[in-house]
Every structure is written in structure tokens, then in C-alpha cells.
Amino acid sequence: MTTEVLVTGGSGFLAAHVIVRLLEGGHSVRTTVRSRSREADVRAMVRAGGVDAEDRLTVVEADLTADAG
Fold first, then answer.
1. Residue 15: which of 54, 38, 63, 67 has the closest Cα?
2. Cα angle 44, 45, 49; round to 5
3. Sheet of strand 4-7, all strands in order from the earlier edge strand to the far edge
4. Reduced DSSP (H G I as helix, E B as strand, rest coil) percent helix, strand, coil of the chain, to 5
């Protein structure tokens, strides 16, 4: 059974390392970014960490200025 883990602030240095470790451990990861334009950065950091995230990494935009975010 695969566990999905939420990692907030996915474009940050520490979050990228956490995401890589979780993916290496076989987990699915959902992460938040403030701007959708940072998704490519997150995916590049994960690749640089030696992991092919495939469809196990979901990136969502979290608007911190709105209740819906």
C-alpha cells in the first residue's frame, strides 16, 4: 500500500530533500508551492536528487492570501 504524504513549501531546500527521501521510500507526495511557475523547479530538484517522480509527485498551488488556498 502506497502512502500519500503532504509536504508544504515544496520549492524550498529542505522540502526538496524530504520529497526525494519520501519518493525513494515508495511514497506518493503532494506538495504545495506559492506559484504554479515553481513546479518545474520542484521537479528539477527531485531529478537532481536522483529520483524519477513519474506520477507519484503532485504539485498544487497554495494561495496564502485567500481562504481557499
1. 38
2. 115
3. 4-7, 28-33, 57-61
4. 35, 20, 40
Sign of CA dihedral 9, 10, 12, 16: positive
Q: What are the structural domain ranges in the chain?
A: 4-61
Model pLDDT, residue 16: 96
User: Are residues 18 and 24 in contact, defined by beta-carbon separation less than 8 angstroms?
Assistant: no
Using CA atoms, how far apart are residues 50 and 6, in angstroms rounded to an integer?
20
Separation CA 48–CA 34 (nearest Å): 21
Q: What's 2's DSSP letter?
A: P
pLDDT tens track for 10-36: 999 999 999 999 999 999 999 999 999
